[in-house]
Every structure is written in structure tokens, then in C-alpha cells.
Amino acid sequence: MLEIVQAGGWLMVPILMCSVVSAAIAVERLWTLQRRRVLPKNLLANSWAALKQDNLSRQNVRLLRKQSPLGYVLAAGISNVKRGRELMKEAMEEATHKVSQDLERYLTALGIIASIAPLLGLLGTVIGMIDVFDNLMRQGAGNANLLAGGISTALVTTASGLSVAIPALMFHRFFLRRVDELVVEIEYESSQLLDLVQGHRLHVDALS
Prior knowledge:
The protein has about 210 residues and is an all-alpha fold. It is about 85% helix and about 0% strand. The chain has nine helices and no strands. Helix 2 packs antiparallel against helix 8 and helix 4 runs parallel beside helix 6 (about 70-80).
């Protein structure tokens, strides 16, 4: 491994840094974007039961907000439940937008790495080929081993750049898709809360 890094030259340093950063982002997002962490099971049902029984204090709402992205959105709606459907809906839409940005954290950096890693590799290859032709001019074309070894060394950075870029691109697309799916489900859960509150109000009005 060390020999490959040394063969690739100084451009292997930023390529390796891209590799480390992309791996760290992938591991962090795999942990953060787990469905159970974003959309805890029965959170809406439990929150609605507590709200209907008027058992949600400000402290409980704060805890709900910190519990998960879905909890953050539901807490925004519950905090505005007495202000009418439209304001409640608007508050949850704003919270969903913020949650969406949080879920996409670091994905821009991952996309940038997927774009620049092969370019760094190509740059390393071009620099290596320049050195190869420079040696050919000074020593002549008679040494085939020198030519083959120089070209092989020059291609190391391209291979390394692609090795970093391909998984980074795959993870980038995968995480974007995961975020879209989670946001759609959060929006669905928030609309369910709106319908539950509206239905409960109509029921209370009918009884009064």
C-alpha cells in the first residue's frame, strides 16, 4: 500500500484525504439516517394520545423536539395546536424544511469528493506522463522498461481517484434517495397529526 502511495506522488495525499473524509461521512450518515432514529415507531400515536389527554407539558414538548427529526416536526405542530390549522401546518412545514436540511448534512461534501477525486487522479496521470516524456527526451526511447514503468506509475493516481470517486458517488445517490423517502414519511406523519387534531375539534364542536 505504501509503495502505491509513493508511486502516485504528492497528489496521492489529497486523494487519500478524500477517501478518509468520504468514508467518515458514509459511516456517520448510515448511523444517522436509520429509519428507527428518524421515524421512531408509534411516536405519532403516543404524541396524539398525550395531546388528546392534555398530558403534554412544555417540558414534554421540548423532549419530543429533541428526540428525533419526526419528533421535531410533531413538536412544532403541537406547539401551535391552539393557533389554528393553517398556522399549525405552516409551523410543521418550516420544521420539515429544517429537518430535511439536517438530514442532508455532509452530502454536498460527499458529492464534491465524488466529482473531484477522479480529476485529481487524472491530474496526477498527466503530471506523470509529462515526466515520462521528459525522461524519454533525455534518455531516448530505447529503454522499454523505463517507459512501461513510468506509464504504470502515472496511472496509479487515476486508478486511486476512481477507487475513491465510485463508492462516494454511490453513497451520495443512496443517501439522497434515503433522505427523500424519510422526508416524504415525515410529511405524511405531520399531515396525519393535522387530520387527527381537526377531527377531534369537529367531534368536540358536535358534542357541545
